[in-house]
Specification:
single chain, 503 residues, alpha/beta, 11 strands, 52% helix, Dynamin_N
Length: 503
């Protein structure tokens, strides 16, 4: 690999350590199986789990991220089990039991926003017998799933304890009980919040204290419902996200919090021409007339309310866009949006999904090797400690050394802080700091702000200059503690780039 384009991570060493442990623990079938799964994980796409309380909007957000209706959003049995979404050549849904029996699941589509359902009423198991669904696997041909495996989890605050425990078992697996140990299910987590209460904080604390994922991003979900769906709902949601981010930053439980209107984002991705024509028609009405008809969602959809858009289409618009989305779409058309593609872009931008995609790319996608290596090393540490007294014990010091290097986590936390608040630094220095810690990409040349074709000597010189500059900046006598810590993080990032160039 060209060191100038390399990213800072430890996937190669994690792969080597897993292979070494496998050789030493090959006689133990449990350890061998876990290590084989860990080795396979290192070669697979990054795994990102969507977690949150019941009705937080996880499935809707998943559909918005994928840009297709692939996840049921109605409260059926499939929302009570963990569901894995992977890339595949043809759309298929398979149910699995704990003893690895499988059954094909029929996918049914209807009209409206909740038109996709997984029919699990009459499963035909292979091998035949009485089986209980453990999890579902969905294969769907999409570019998004080719890069990332997405895991939709049951609500963390379900009244059924076993339902919530499925999510906890996936994200915070058992530690040293060799019989109960499993490989952590996710490399990163997107946690959906409606409000920041004790249940949310407790879950995030469990995630941070256990052997869970390194990366956690929060989403203020269903952001369009804040302020009762008024046109300024997303501004209010952004204020809420900033407050949540500030509170969570103190605990180190979450690296960023983004407001997202998932329903609007999905509607934007799948906006049809008839829907655009309906918005155009509504936009031509006198504002007072339309506002009166939109006093409530029920009133807007009522057949006896006279509007030039049919009641069935109005009901569809409410179902797909929500009242906030309908108001926003009409306002955008009135302000000059002239076609469906332009409206889709505007709605997508305003929904928050574009910002979330950027955050997920910078904090998860471009750090996939680092996150996967962390998951593998965490599993490796647990497996070796659960099977003591073998020559694999000699690997533990290096494994723990790698796990103790939490600089990548410090970068993620600082990126989240910079999104919620600014440090007292000049704009040019803030931009440089943001770039150094991977905010514009984690490849070495992107961190250093040099062109793609910069030679290695120029990259090395720039990295050394950055190390000296940011270490000196951190020692400035008038700088506050938070800014000094940020400067040291930038210096450490520059040192990492330099190490990558010289290794």
């Amino acid at each position: 690999m060209d060191p100038a384009r390399a990213t800072i991570g430890g996937l190669a060493e994690a792969t080597r350590l897993v292979a070494a442990a496998t050789r030493e623990l090959d006689r133990d079938p449990v350890a061998r199986a876990m290590l084989a799964e860990t080795a396979a994980r290192l070669r697979q796409p990054l795994r990102v789990a969507l977690a949150g309380s019941i009705k937080a909007g996880k499935s809707t957000l998943l559909n918005a991220l994928v840009g297709q209706s692939v996840a049921p959003t109605d409260a059926t049995e499939c929302t009570r089990v963990v569901t894995w979404y992977r890339n595949g050549q043809t759309p298929t849904v398979t149910a699995y039991s704990a003893d690895n029996a499988s059954a094909n699941v029929v996918v049914r589509r209807g009209a409206g926003a909740h038109g996709l359902t997984f029919d699990m009423a009459d499963l035909r198991w292979t091998p035949p017998g009485q089986h209980t669904v453990s999890h579902l696997e969905v294969q769907w041909p999409t570019a998004e799933l080719a890069k990332t495996t997405i895991i939709d989890t049951p609500g963390t605050s379900s009244l059924s304890r076993d339902v919530s425990e499925r999510t906890m078992a996936l994200l915070t697996p058992a530690d040293l009980d060799a019989a109960a140990m499993t490989v952590p299910g996710a490399d990163a987590v997107v946690y959906l919040l409606r409000r920041l209460d004790a249940t949310d904080v407790h879950f995030l604390e469990q995630l941070g204290a256990g052997s869970g994922a390194l990366g956690v991003v929060g989403v203020v979900s269903r952001a369009d419902e804040i302020s009762a769906g008024r046109i300024n709902a997303l501004n209010s949601a952004r204020e809420v996200a900033t407050r949540f981010s500030t509170e969570l930053e103190r605990t180190g439980l979450c690296q960023a919090v983004i407001p997202v209107a998932g329903l609007l984002a999905f509607a934007a991705a799948t906006l049809s021409q008839p829907e655009f024509v309906a918005f155009e028609t509504l936009a031509r009405l006198p504002a007072e007339h339309l506002e009166l008809a939109m006093l409530s969602a029920d009133r807007f959809a009522r057949p006896d309310v006279v509007l030039p858009v049919a009641p069935m289409m109005r009901a569809q618009l409410l179902d797909r866009f929500g009242m906030f989305g309908v108001r926003m779409s009409v306002e955008l058309v009135r302000s000059g949006v002239r076609d469906a593609a332009a409206l889709a872009r505007e709605l997508s931008s305003r929904s928050g999904i574009d910002e979330l995609r950027t955050v997920l790319d910078v904090q998860f996608g471009q750090r996939a090797d680092q996150l996967k290596a962390h998951s593998a090393l965490t599993t490796l540490d647990r497996v070796i400690r659960a099977h003591p007294g073998t020559s694999a014990d000699a690997l533990l010091p290096r494994i723990r050394e790698l796990l103790s290097d939490v600089h990548g986590f410090a970068e993620l936390r600082l990126l989240g802080h910079l999104r919620a608040d600014e440090l007292p630094l000049p704009p040019a220095e803030l931009a440089e700091l943001f770039r150094l810690i991977g905010g514009a990409g984690v490849a070495v040349h992107r961190r250093l702000g040099l062109p793609d074709d910069a030679d290695e000597a120029a990259l090395r010189e720039q990295a050394m200059t950055a190390v000296r500059k940011w270490r000196a900046r951190a020692k400035h006598p008038l700088i506050d503690k938070a800014t000094a810590t940020a400067c040291l993080t930038a210096a450490r990032s520059a040192e990492g780039a330099l190490t990558q160039l010289t290794s």
